[in-house]
Amino acid sequence: MSTLAANAPGAAGGGLSDVAASEATLRRFLHGLPGVDQVGLESRAATLGTRSIKTTAKAFAIDLAISMIDLTTLEGADTAGKVRSLCAKGLHPDPTDRSVPQVAAICVYPDMVATAKEALRGSGVQVASVATAFPSGRAGLPVKLADTAEAVAAGADEIDMVIDRGAFLSGRYLEVFETIKAVKAACERPDGTSAHLKVIFETGELQTYDNVRRASWLAMIAGADFIKTSTGKVAVNATQPVTLLMLEAVRDFRAATGVQVGVKPAGGIRTTKDAMKYLVMVNETLGDDWLSPHWFRFGASSLLNDLLMQRQKLSTGRYSGPDYVTVD
Length: 328
What we know:
This protein is an alpha/beta fold. 46% of the residues lie in helices and 10% in strands. An eight-stranded parallel sheet has the order 7-6-5-4-3-2-1-8. GO terms for molecular function: deoxyribose-phosphate aldolase activity.
């Protein structure tokens, strides 16, 4: 068991419920986590990024990466037609090759959930919806809960919420914790099922690696099913060191509680080479347990086109023309 897991309050009993008894206990726990060795973290991430994947393994890794993509459209100009087109691409990323796997999910705004749900009916591809005043998170709790409830009622399988970074950076940890818990409750349906909850930190705004570690543990204690780096709407999104730090957090959290939590880097991952680096990090840090769309996702859209181009290059020995893949 890691040092973090061994020292976690309630670790012996497999739970961490006592750490959020008050603002003081939660702060004591979060600030009691070991500080992040910045040099060591960035050096390990860089080293893992140099690992090469050979041809046979690369073909497997490309298909795995495709199956992990949350294909996303989150623009003010989104239309029902655009969402249906994106769903069609998610179902059959390469219409000329039905051996290409489906993506993991289509991610849209709450008002487009019903459209995506209908387009994906019976396919197994999940419908994810951003909520809680995405991407800023600047809204009161009733608005955030209404945003979530609308998406869940429309059929969303997954909810991607954003934390209030202002509250977190101001040290109002219990407020962030209670908001995550409330949104988690809003993900529940009358039939007893529940949409999975991904909690977005916007790591580019959290300022320090220590804050990323604290946010990771805070979200997991509050009930997150996934922890996610970014919205993709700011200058700095997913990075390899930040993702590695979050992978280490979910590893230690499972050691402390027995609960497995997924990780989703989002924003700025555009090439097959990038995706391979992230898969190597997952394999080296967490092992096979997390090498599945159930536990690891890419928040990306342009990445899919590059994966398709590289996949065809492996199978035919040449790159296709610029019109081989659709422009989303």
